[in-house]
Write a structure and sequence with these properties.
It contains twelve helices and no strands. Keywords: Cell membrane, Membrane, Transmembrane, Transmembrane helix, Transport.
């Protein structure tokens, strides 16, 4: 148990950027959910059991007449299809984590994925416990924000227009931090170039999936060179 206590203590500073973003975005979700007439507890339950970020914002509009299950499944898949590629990256590592792997897969959001890729377990801290702590802390921020937002909606009235941009801002901050801290920036450059190219070709509504495919193909083709760069930097 003490191993987990140390892991959470060391993981918390790494998750502070996500804390500031998820708390605010979670509040926005709680407010939006409450505006539909649901209690704060339903917002909390959804954040505990679904925990899908932007898909939860989208899901607020599902609770209206005329939306079929097929539409819900398709739209949710399109919004979160990028997580398939995230999971492939960590497939082997999560498999080694035993029963914890199921929660690690469930809790792999955009921002958590970024932290897992960049944060390293300090000396004396079990890596599996450290990673588990990051994922659980990140979700706890989102759940807490959802609860606060649902409760605030019953006592305060304010305009939430544009509040969802906090999700984008948070991801930009994490990306910038990674860009500044790593020596090999080729993978990040591939991702940016792929996104810009697919945005021009497919438009803002359809570019995410093609971007993921193009990025994976480009990384696969340049894999040997990238591995060589990593070895040179390590040396």
């Amino acid at each position: 148990m003490s191993g987990y206590k140390l892991a959470f203590k060391k993981a918390f500073p790494c998750t502070i950027p996500v804390l500031t973003g998820y708390l605010f975005i979670g509040i926005a979700f709680g407010v939006m959910y409450a505006e539909k007439g649901y209690s704060a507890w339903w917002a909390v339950l959804m954040s505990v059991l679904v925990y899908a970020g932007s898909a939860q914002y989208l899901a607020v509009n599902f609770f209206v007449p005329g939306i079929s299950f097929a539409q819900i499944i398709f739209m949710t898949l399109m919004v979160n299809v990028r997580h398939i590629f995230y999971g492939l990256t960590w497939l082997e590592k999560f498999h080694q984590m035993g029963k914890k792997r199921w929660y690690m897969i469930f809790g792999l959001t955009d921002e958590t994925y970024s932290l897992l890729c960049s944060a390293k377990a300090p000396e004396g801290v079990d890596e599996d416990k450290f990673m588990f702590a990051i994922v659980l802390l990140d979700q706890s921020y989102w759940v807490a924000g959802s609860a606060i937002g649902g409760i605030l909606k019953n006592v305060l009235t304010f305009n939430t227009e544009g509040i969802e941009f906090a999700m984008t801002a948070l991801f930009v901050v994490i990306f910038t931090e990674q860009w500044m801290n790593v020596k090999n920036r080729i993978p990040a450059a591939i991702g940016v170039i792929s996104a810009l190219l697919c945005l021009q070709i497919f438009g803002s509504a359809n570019f995410v999936f093609p971007t993921m495919i193009l990025s994976v193909l480009a990384l696969f083709i340049t894999r040997k060179r990238l591995e060589g760069e990593e070895e040179n930097h390590a040396a």
